[in-house]
Amino acid sequence: MPSSQEEISNQEEISIDNDVRELVIARLKLLSPDTIKSIGDKGVFSRDELIECVEKGDETGEIVKKVEMEWLRAVKNGIVDKIYE
Amino acid sequence: MITRPEHDPGTRYLSRWSEEVIDAAKKKGIDVTDLCQKKAVRKELEGRIKRIDPSFILFNGHGGADCVTGHDNEVLIKAEDNHSLLKNRVTYAVSCNSAQKLGAVCADKNTAYIGYDESFIFNIDRTHLRRPLEDQRAAQFLEASNQVSLLLIKGHAVKEACNGSKKVFKDAIKKLLPSINNDPFANDDIADLFWDMNHLVCMGDGTKQIV
Fold this sequence. Notes:
- The structure holds 2 protein chains of 2 kinds.
- Chain A is mainly alpha-helical.
- Chain A has one domain.
- Helices cover 71% and strands 11% of the residues of chain A.
- In chain A, strands 1-2 form a two-stranded antiparallel ribbon.
- The longest helix of chain A is centred in the first third of the chain and has 26 residues, at 4-29.
- In chain A, 22% of the residues are buried.
- Chain B is α/β, with parallel strands linked by helices.
- Chain B has one domain (2-121, 133-202).
- Helices cover 43% and strands 19% of the residues of chain B.
- Chain B contains 7 helices and 10 strands.
- Chain B has helices at 9-17, 19-27, 42-52, 99-106, 136-153, 158-176, 184-199, and strands spanning 2-4, 34-36, 56-60, 63-64, 67-69, 75-78, 90-94, 112-116, 121-125, 200-204.
- Chain B has a 6-stranded mixed beta sheet, sandwiched between helices.
- In chain B, a hairpin with a 5-residue loop joins β5 (67-69) and β6 (75-78).
- The longest helix of chain B has 19 residues, at 158-176.
- Chain B is globular.
- Chain B starts with a strand and ends in a 7-residue tail after the last strand.
- Chain A binds chain B through residues 27-28, 30-44, 46, 63, 66-68, 70-71, 74, 79-80, 83-84, and chain B through 8-10, 13, 62-64, 69, 73, 95-97, 118-127, 129, 170, 173-174, 177, 184-185, 187-188, 190-192, 194-195, 198.
- β1 of chain A pairs antiparallel with β9 of chain B.
């Protein structure tokens, strides 16, 4: 049986995951419907298909989330200044 | 030697954008073996490698952690199967994930493997689907990824070519940054360019040259 601390930690993870999902979907909704993303062997996806993938949490949706999070973490760690160096 | 399957929009874009690499090699007097469309299959690849003994192999296509595929996703090269064909050469795989295992088993002191250790992503403007070379969104990604091959053809070493490509990715990001707060395309493209730049890896002999 998980300890109460583990339960809290799991709940926090789920909550962060939901926040990230909502953020990524909000950003995808801003794109023009003419946007297509080629994600290697997963195929090519329209904006609306990408939103569906993120909502479902499938493999493609997880990649889209990872990409967004990698950039946002880098921004938090000062990547913009480093790029201009 | 270059493989250019063309069985879906992603591979068609990579194939068309590879034409500039082929032209650059020919201008430099390098013989190019072009395994395009239905020729991008395992039997052709293996036979040609044995006959021609190329110093550089450029794979365009899909892939997985342990393989790169060709026409209709037929496996061309696979770790622990026929990966020894890449030994003592320079390989650049514009495909997903293959640096994870295939690159790792190929790379050694006489062999260089350049590839991506995660998905290679690029964005397309649907209005240009039939004219890939006019697609300015895709251009940002494919010009940067082509730099690896173009710099190798110019005589740069593997590590320099890889760094040169990363610089073009970085320059593309720098160009988009001023628009990040008012252009959703910029926001989307920056995250994907940053991802590709970070996951382009060079393994094995970084000092190796192809010409």
